[in-house]
Amino acid sequence: ILHKELAENPEDAGAWYYLAGAQRLQEKLDDAIVSYTKSIQYLPEYGDAYLRRGIVWFKKGDYLVAALDFEFASSLNY
User: Fold this and answer.
1) Which of 22, 36, 45, 52 is the most exposed place for a label (fewest CB within 10 A)?
2) CB-based contacts of 26: which residues, under 8 Å, 6+ apart?
């Protein structure tokens, strides 16, 4: 369903966000990072996308990048 939505509306930040969440739960961490990044690209003030992308970076062991996403999410008053 999400792939169909994104084929029709490729700038749908919410669809990218939910796709990233599904990918994260399936341990497709690199795909999840790409999808969260797309969500952020289309909705730059979406703090939850930064937070969750940070969680994925953390799971991958890239703690510095994770911390940057966490800090940016907090700067958005998330």
Assistant:
1) 45
2) none
Opening angle at CA 75, ends 46 and 62, nearest 5: 80
Distance, CA of 70 to CA of 1 (rounded, Å): 29
Which pLDDT score is estimated for 67?
97
Instruction: Write the pLDDT tens digit of every residue in 50-77.
Output: 999 999 999 999 999 999 999 999 999 7
Q: What is the Cα–Cα distance from 60 to 13, expressed in whole angstroms?
A: 23
Average pLDDT over the chain reads 95
For the CA atoms of 46, 4, 1, 12, the dihedral, rounded to the nearest 10 degrees, stands at 10
The sign of the CA dihedral 39, 43, 49, 53 is: positive
Q: Identify which of 51, 41, 43 has the alpha carbon closest to the alpha carbon of residue 78.
A: 51
